[in-house]
UniProtKB/TrEMBL annotation:
CDD domains: nitrilase (cd07197). It comes from the Bacteria. PANTHER family: DEAMINATED GLUTATHIONE AMIDASE (PTHR23088:SF27), NITRILASE-RELATED (PTHR23088). The lineage of its organism: Bacteria, Pseudomonadati, Bacteroidota, Cytophagia, Cytophagales. It comes from Hymenobacter humi. InterPro entries: C-N_Hydrolase (IPR003010), C-N_Hydrolase_sf (IPR036526). GO terms for molecular function: hydrolase activity. Residues 1-235 form the CN hydrolase domain. Keywords: Hydrolase. This is Carbon-nitrogen hydrolase family protein.
Amino acid sequence: MGQLLVEGGEPARNLARAVEQIAQAATEKCDLVLLPETLDFAWTHPSALYEAQPIPGPFSDQLCQAAVEHGIYVCAGLTERAADGRNYNAAILINPQGEIIIKYHKINLLSVEQPFYAVGQTLNVVDTPLGKIGVNICADNYIDGLAIGHTLARMGAEFIIAPSSWTVDYSITEEHDPYQEKWVRPFSILAKLYNVVVVGTTSVGYIVGGPYEGKKRGLLPGSRCQWHSSSGNIQ
């Protein structure tokens, strides 16, 4: 689980940090690294409306190259400019050969992100040597979007991995634990019902630009990831 600082409207710096995280994960003998949601421009940053790139494209190519260089699976969130001109909140799963084996578009968009991204229309799982993997994004795992996780599990996913950008008010601190109902509960439902591992990773940093300007992603300091299985969770 690769948390990293994501700066609004700074894709070059953000991607450089993502590549560093991939290298670090490989050094620590990880088979797969999960990076945050929309790590290129940051979630709902206005610059993505005009500067988003296609997938495959220059941003995804950097992640594919890092996957090959370090021999590791990479799952990451990016903003995709589709051929029809619409933007999507996208997640990609890259194998160690640098191939994009899943590209997913977020379905359960929050109302504040709907001006920035179009709604996705497909779900996929893929067989890998690690097991069968399904991909979704952040609020797809809210209680009101949990049908997405149910569907992935019923499609045979043994792992559901979710690039995320958990946003809280700037005044929230670690001891408030605002994620209990939003994340622990729905992740646990899927894990226990289907014996599936559900993993989410968020970015960190204060939000600059967009409808949530001034809030922050994750909890600072000591922000967290969530990993749930039928036997419990690791935070």
